[in-house]
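Fold this sequence, please.
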Amino acid sequence: MNILAIDTATEACSVALEVDNTLYSHFEVCPQQHSQRLLPMIDAILKEAGVELASLDLLAFGRGPGSFTGVRIATGMIQGLALGTGLPVAGVSTLKAMAVEAAQKSTGQFVAVASDARMGEVYFCVYKQSDNGLETVVPEQVCPPTEAVNYLSELGEALNNNVIVAGTGWAAYEELQQWLNTQGDGETAISKAANTEKKPAVTLPNAAFMLEDAKEAARANTTTSAAEVKPVYLRDKVTWKKLPGRE
């Protein structure tokens, strides 16, 4: 299956193309430049592979969660590409993409993803590795770091010395870093834990790790048309209310 995937949900901007089982991938960290960089990156990767967009079988995009503006940029771009070609579209979770990449880079039965959502919250989920790939243990949601720690604590000893972490939330919030530092042998020094990463294995999503989930959506016939493409924000509140006396 020949497929193009894009993602702009975070500070990173990435494009991945799989043609005849060959992977082409571009990844840049370019805050606030996504709208300028995305289309040139798409054009460049298609030229590199020597294919036309219309000759592909499927389009995919990082549906979120992430920055509201970033998610909208990818959504708008994929809709335009789908309208112009008639290709089906698969939306892929940015959190799942980070988990997939982290699971390939590190050893551990569980993958916990916490991405900084600002406003004192994180986008959070937990996956478990199985013969069928990553299975959801804690569904993706937006929550305070303390609530994320509660979820992790409820999983208890199953995570001890057996968890990979991904996302920007671990460095952004002390509560999550403190939890991470307690993993392994009951010690505060995380170096005691052989399989637990002191730092996230992955911090930002990469479109290259959205391809397999997109293919699975095609196999399961859960792709959509351009008109049906929907982003996932997880949060309705966009900005702080800063006026005096306002909550």
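The longest helix spans residues 68-85. Residues 185-197, 238-247 have pLDDT under 50 and may be disordered.
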